[in-house]
Amino acid sequence: VSHLELWALATPHRFVEGDDLVEHLLAALSAHDQALLDGDVVVVTSKVVSKVEGRVVPVGPDVSDKVALVESEATRILRRRGPLRLTETTHGFVNANAGVDLSNTESGTAVLLPRDPDKSARALRATLEHRLKIRLAVIVTDTFGRAWRNGVTDVAIGSAGITPILDLRGTTDDTGRVLEATEVAVVDEIAGAANLVLAKNAGAPFCIVRGITPTWLGTGSVVEHIVRAPAGDLFR
Amino acid sequence: VSHLELWALATPHRFVEGDDLVEHLLAALSAHDQALLDGDVVVVTSKVVSKVEGRVVPVGPDVSDKVALVESEATRILRRRGPLRLTETTHGFVNANAGVDLSNTESGTAVLLPRDPDKSARALRATLEHRLKIRLAVIVTDTFGRAWRNGVTDVAIGSAGITPILDLRGTTDDTGRVLEATEVAVVDEIAGAANLVLAKNAGAPFCIVRGITPTWLGTGSVVEHIVRAPAGDLFR
To answer: A219 and chain B: CB distance < 8 Å anywhere?
Structure first.
């Protein structure tokens, strides 16, 4: 039986610029009597990555101030509705309000997305692997809306140590025929799965995912593999 | 620590019209020495739901035959690229090729989406709850592409016994401020999580998800709550 397990790791710490995410992750693991094992995926919310990287900026109290900040963060605006901006970001993500987050931050401030979440994931992974002497993957997540469907889901905005898209093309299905293209965005499915346990723990910044197929550990990045090039995009 | 566990349940059975999904699910559980517990979510792939409901149709060998079938299943075509059709279905889903599936079926046939996947989920749940005398949720999944991001993920196309969108608006965040809108599409996050274990077991039609917050058990349906009305949709 294939099996997957996920744990949320909460911490009472309020993250600020310069904090060491690895130290806080290891402390949270220890506090919960948990340890990372070879092949685990560590999921980290972009909010704490942004905070430790100093991506907190002042913003005025008016809606117009917030919209101005969003528009300054966006490289392109795809749609406008009231104060909502459907944007493209410097990373190439298409999301609401350029990922500018006005919740979970001190009043009068906003949290911007990490400048390079793949790089953040790589740095976190390198430090963890060096400290623990095991192979790990790291995924940085954020909450995105979707076209055509209500509600938000968490998706990967950065990753390291894992193949972002698992290519099942060419494998045979249960009738022995070759499958059509099924390139599964596993980093996004893991991000959404992690949110199921994080949503139960408001404020928990870390989730451990145990049980992914070892061959999924690999290379690639979210910006390189998940972001669809505008030229190939039917909705941009 | 919040914890979530998922298991794939494979079966050697090739599903055909009229098969009893509940019998096969219970047999697969028994074969894997597993039992359903109160509060579990049972995830079923739409492919087997369609097959037992007789949604298998003949299709000619040419690309034009396949495109014709797709177009006959679609209520609206949003984009065309080569043989690909980005469609709206009778359910209101926006997906590729109206969900018509040419893999995992006998040559010369195609599998259509269930007519009413929410109803399929409700029927499956009612029978399981009656048989086992426990509360369960059921989610029927299919594989969809996304705008702006490469790769596919599994999403919910039908559900029963679970609140499809978890409304966290009005709850306070870790700084004590009221959170902005975060309506989490938990049925989609569960569907994607289930695919992580199903993808490791080509052909496994069932996944058990254990550990969701009991208050998530509730009412609602995918078509009613997840499908965004065209009038409120910025990309239709």
So the answer is: no
Do B163 and B186 meet the contact criterion of CB atoms below 8 Å apart? yes
A235 interfacial to chain B (CB closer than 8 Å) = yes
Yes or no, beta carbons of A2 and B201 under 8 Å apart = yes
Chain segment A22-42, per-residue pLDDT in tens = 999 999 999 989 999 999 999
- Residue A169 is predicted with a pLDDT of 57
User: Is the minimum CB–CB distance between B202 and chain A shorter than 8 Å?
Assistant: yes
ipTM computed for the complex: 0.94
Is the pTM for the entire model greater than 0.90?
yes
Contact A194, A43 (CB under 8 A): yes
Write out pLDDT tens, residues B84-124.
999 999 999 999 999 999 877 788 999 999 999 999 999 99
The burial class, CB within 10 Å (0-12 / 13-18 / 19+), for B178 is: exposed
Residues of chain B with pLDDT under 70: 1, 168-181, 200
CA distance A156 to A167: 17
Q: Check CB contact under 8 Å for A150 and B165.
A: yes
User: Strands A3-9, A206-210: parallel, antiparallel or unpaired by DSSP?
Assistant: antiparallel
Q: How far is A177 from chain B (nearest CA, A)?
A: 7
Nearest to A195 among B94, B104, B189 (CB): B189
